[in-house]
User: Fold this.
Amino acid sequence: MDSYDLIVIGAGPGGYVSAIRAAQLGLSVACIEKDATLGGTCLNVGCIPSKALLESSEKYAQAADKKGMGAHGIAIGKLELDLGKMLGRKDKIVKQLTSGVAMLFRKNNITSLRGVGRFTGKREADKHVIEVVGGDGAVAQSIAGTNVLIATGSKVASIPGVEFDIGEGGASRVGTSTEALAWPEVPKHLVVIGAGVIGLELGSVWGRLGAKVTVLEYMPRLLPTMETDVGDAALKLFKRQGLGFHFGVRVTGAVAVGDGAKVTYQDGDVEKVIECDRVLVAVGRKPMTDGLGLAAIGIEVDRRGCVGVDEQFRTSVEGVWAIGDVIPGPMLAHLAEHEGICAVETMAGQPGHVNYEAIPNVIYTHPEIASLGKTTAELDEAGVAYRVGKFPLMANGRAKALGETDGFVKIVAHAETDRILGASIIGARAGDLIAELAVAVEFSASAEDIGRSIHAHPTMAESVKEAALDALGRVINF
Ligand code: FAD
Ligand code: NAD
Assistant:
């Protein structure tokens, strides 16, 4: 039986990055992936294809927005959409990146095995024996590992009453994000269930391309875990873009009917029905442990199906580790990567640590919405005194030149120590701007540190500096 220092199960961003880092540290590594291509949810049907379509659809929306372009002195004639080409571009990007992971595996001498990885509960000279199960259900091979890293990610969650009709060739009328990344025509009316990240991103894509979009959300307001002023500003901007929202409603059913679909929801005491031609179900994701054989080694999952871990991502079984979407916490690709790096560095005898206060969270709508650390509501609840600095993009010279003046930067700093505790940015390229604040939090920087760091002029990043100065009562340009 082949044996390895580390067997990684799952080749998503958590698994493949862990495999590479482990190989760099001199460990012998095998990575088992059940799907035909590497890269997991993120590269195949998540982060990357959604961002490709967000970029293409935003270009289309800019070209279609005669008013916005007109202000630049640009008049556009007849506008045409070649959706097939747009989808083809997305597929090409996915292919380049997933085959790039295969190339990185070869470069790092990582053994890449295709099949479902499954614990057997057996031991071979103190190593865990893992079976690799092929598409036909037969065990293709067994391998042994001193360490096994569970990086099996997540799958789509649903709600009672929703009947997916996932068919070939884009036939699905009631589908998940995976189908919504490949619909062959622009829906006339798309109903999105859930105003979370996927609902907002993919609702934006199809809305920009011409669909009427109605979003049904259970919670009473948009983005309830973010700063209230961020959620309020975002709602105003999305409504301006034509997205329709119903908050505080509970979807009770979604079924395909003929060429379209019917969605039923409860609005207070009233049951309402919407007829539409596509439904995107985006009510969250749940950990993926199907077929993994956790019971064989005595690992139990929690109420949500997550595998429990300690701070270095050890499970309750020696030599078995877990990271990414399959463990409790935010489901983010960059977090899965960092957790994986922490786990394998710990395996190799190095200190490993993930700072959960410094994880940027970005929604790639237009404008983008980015946040990290604590919100003011969380600090109020914890009784921590703080100062807030806020700077509107309207007052930033580069934002004016770009025609991207919607939004603001908000920084929350400790009232006495001035240490940055949290930040939110709504605005163009907020996802890039938040990186500075992630570094600041990681290094325990203060608002004074950011305010005294020289930011190039004219850049959007100057708004970050100005927000920090505002927290100190010294804002210059507002
Ligand atoms: P995954 O990426 O899910 O990878 C797990 C892999 O394990 C899969 O390839 C699966 O096939 C494989 N697997 C499962 N069980 C087995 C088994 N028993 N044997 C072998 N293989 C197995 N996050 C962001 O940070 N930014 C974004 O912009 C973003 N956009 C997203 C857009 C969409 C539409 C979706 C759905 C998600 C998005 N996410 C985004 C979330 C992100 O994709 C996940 O957080 C991330 O992929 C988690 O990484 P992971 O390695 O834990 O799991
Ligand atoms: P989500 O948790 O972000 O949002 C789900 C939404 O559905 C919530 O607002 C919830 O209140 C609502 N909901 C639940 N049941 C409902 C019902 N019966 N009726 C109406 N609304 C209901 O989940 P998601 O958008 O599906 O995304 C899944 C995961 O993927 C997230 O954890 C996210 O972190 C990750 N993701 C990240 C990014 C990014 O980082 N840019 C992009 C896409 C996905």
The radius of gyration is 24 Å.
